[in-house]
Design goal:
By secondary structure, the protein is α+β, with helices and mostly antiparallel strands. The chain is built from ten helices and nine strands. The longest helix has 27 residues, at 199-225.
């Protein structure tokens, strides 16, 4: 599609608190924009990072494993045409650095292309009389090519992590955390379509909207615990965001400046109407709040 749109990459913790976000043009693939979001949250002590199949690339796997983070990525079905052998049916021999095809023929290493893939090719004369040729390749010279990325061992480590006991249940929490955030943002906060021109304005809208979502979550928790004055304080802050900044597209104020003004104004509002409120109220644990990271 050729449309005017932005994509919002979002990170949250296991309890559904939005930690950080990044805004990118809509035609950028998720794997290309992962680094900018990861750099914002890598300092909070991540043990296991759960992401969807769009982030399952050798580069991301290497980045996370080298930094001591367990990448939990889903199964990605082979992209082979129907009726042909899948890549996993060609066995890799690590000692001899070659592939063995289903007919026990050897595919030897030839070259490494610019994308970082090592190419293994078969012998065309041997494959010409093979009974499985129709299920193997359609090349005119009867040469089968199998490609293996130079960082493929990291992808194999990801598969080992995925098949570890308990990881399936852990991955299923995505639908209760980040997918729920996406659903609420699209259904209730207009994130289904791009509504503003310019990346800076979209970043401001996303940041303030996610701040409101975290505040709303906290207000419900406090109300459940019976702390009404905290709930009133949070609702005042949400009202202040909606009235002053959320739909204002005229000024080009930086996001950090807006949030600093938000914290000052909301504190003054509470001091005036609700009495003195502790100044460290917004200092929730950094790994559980987007407010300390805006």
């Amino acid at each position: 599609k050729h449309v005017f749109a932005y994509a919002v990459q979002t990170a949250c913790d296991k309890n559904g608190w939005i930690l950080s976000y990044s805004v990118h043009p809509g035609n950028n693939h998720d794997s290309r924009t992962f680094k900018s979001l990861y750099d914002k949250v890598k300092g909070i002590g991540i043990e296991t990072l759960i992401a969807d199949a769009g982030y399952k690339t050798p580069g991301i796997a290497k980045l996370l494993i080298d930094q001591g983070v367990k990448p939990l990525l889903p199964y990605k079905r082979p992209l082979t045409k129907e009726g042909f052998f899948k890549k996993y049916e060609y066995v890799y021999d690590e000692y001899y650095d070659c592939y063995i095809c289903p007919n026990n023929q050897v595919l030897t290493y030839r070259t490494t292309n610019r994308e970082g893939y090592r190419e293994y090719k078969s012998c065309g004369s041997a494959c010409a009389s093979c009974a499985y040729l129709a299920k193997c390749t359609q090349s005119k010279d009867h040469v089968k090519t199998v490609m293996r990325h130079i960082w493929e061992p990291y992808m194999e480590m990801c598969e080992e992590i995925r098949q570890t006991l308990g990881m399936k249940e852990l991955y299923s929490q995505r639908k209760e955390t980040i997918e729920r955030i996406f659903g609420s943002a699209k259904e209730n906060h207009g994130f289904r379509y791009t509504q503003m021109f310019g990346k800076a304005r979209m970043e401001m809208k996303v940041g303030l909207t996610f701040a409101c979502m975290n505040l709303k979550k906290l207000a419900r928790m406090k109300a459940k615990w019976g702390e009404a004055h905290f709930t009133n304080f949070i609702l005042n802050a949400i009202w202040l965001i909606k009235e002053n900044w959320l739909w204002d597209t005229k000024p080009k104020t930086s996001l950090s400046t807006v949030c600093a003004e938000l914290l000052m104004s909301s504190a003054q509002t509470v001091d005036k109407f609700r009495g003195q409120v502790p100044r460290n109220f917004f200092a929730i644990e950094p790994e559980k709040s987007a407010l300390t990271r805006l």
